[in-house]
Amino acid sequence: MNNSSFTSNDDDNSANLKRRKKDGEDDEYKLGGSRKNKGINNSNNSLMSDILTSLILLDEEEKQEHQQRALESLHDKAAFDWNHKRKLEAMNDYHSDLQTRFSDLDEMDSSGTKRHRHSAKLTAAAVAVTETAQPSSEQSGTGGGSGQQRRLWVKDRSKDWWEKCNHPDFPEEEFRKEFRMSKATFDMICVELDSVVTKKNTMLRDAIPVCSAIRKVLMPKFLQWPDEDKLKMIKGEFESMSGIPDVGGSMYTTHVPITAPKTNVAAYYNKRHTERNQKPSYSMTVQGVVNPEGVFTDVCIGYPGSMPDERVLEECALFKRAKSGALKNVWIAGNSGHPLMDWVLVPYTRHHLTWTQHAFNEKIGEIQRVSKEAFARLKGRWTCLQRRAEVKLQDLPVVLGACCVLHNICEMRNEEMDPELKFDVFDDDMIPENSVRSAGAVQARDHIAHNLLHHGFALDATKIVN
């Protein structure tokens, strides 16, 4: 019984041992499988990371190559542009040298009369520009600054017109009608410009350079601020006219209509002219000071039409000259659009004026009419100033300056103007917000007004008040 029992126990123990062994092998198998799967996952993650890193590096390399190609393209374009510019400069220099050589040969072969006729053609072109400024037949958009602007003198003009006008038998009256001046004045201008324009292109398409020659050669001679002796004469003439002493000039600001510019259009928008014309209007300002004969002694050209008269005055060279003390004991007579300053004398603008103030306004108005009528003659002579200019905006001040110089020459030589050319200047001055800039000027104006009333100059004004 004991042996049987022991054997049975041994068998049981042996079976249990085998069962435990088998269970251990199963656990070990399961653990090994889990470790194997974890290793596979880690390997896959590492592979994906390598792939993503490679893609990112490839993308970055592609970007760098693209930037490098763009940079090389810019360098190539810059080099091409530089080489092209150098070639153009070389060609222009060569062409200029040929033109100079041919011009020298022409001068050697031509007589003085031929050179004079040559400069006369160019002068005729300048006068034609200031008179009419006709555009070419190439049309462009006119509204809102859209479209390509028309160009000036882009086609060759027939010489028949000039040959007819230049003929000795051409009537003086007809010549004056064509050029707004006599033959003698025209010949004088040709002589003055001869040294500058004889070597220039003889075709009438170069109108703007001729206007530049007028500004360069004639402006210093015919449009300049008077010296002390002339200023003393001007003061005397204005005082004889009005009774107001020490007036050295009459100032007025007008506007020249232009087409709507492509840039900065709001600055050139003219509200007053738009209201008057019932359509959008744009302009460029021309401020001028004239002597008693209506000859310009100072001009400021080119500021946008939206600027009021006082702002134009503050930006001009005359204002800077006055601030430096160069206009001591000199009054410049302005209008109600200018402020009262130590050197600018303007009318009274408040309501309910006294007799004395009315008298002063009447007399300073006589001085003011001198500059206003000068601008009326300026625009009457050169009709390009009456309508929208077709010249490029950056070139327009040169043309306007040439108009002022030619106006002065005509005035100095007493060139009569056809009454049919009379032009009414639109008075669009606005009273400035700060109309009084100097307490001393207030006292000086009151003193002048008092003297006018008590020295018999203001009798007409008192009759008007009564």
From TrEMBL:
Swiss-Prot/TrEMBL cofactor(s): a divalent metal cation
InterPro entries tied to this protein: HARBI1-like (IPR045249), HARBI1_dom (IPR027806)
Intracellular or extracellular location(s): Nucleus
GO molecular function: hydrolase activity; metal ion binding; nuclease activity
Main localization category: nucleus
Domain of life: Eukaryota
Annotated stretches, region: Disordered: 1-45, 130-151
UniProt keyword Metal-binding present: yes
Compositional bias segments (type: Low complexity): 130-140
Family: Belongs to the HARBI1 family.
PANTHER family, alphabetized: OS05G0593000 PROTEIN (PTHR22930:SF244), PTHR22930
Name of this chain's protein: DDE Tnp4 domain-containing protein
Taxonomic source organism: Salix purpurea
Species lineage: Eukaryota, Viridiplantae, Streptophyta, Embryophyta, Tracheophyta
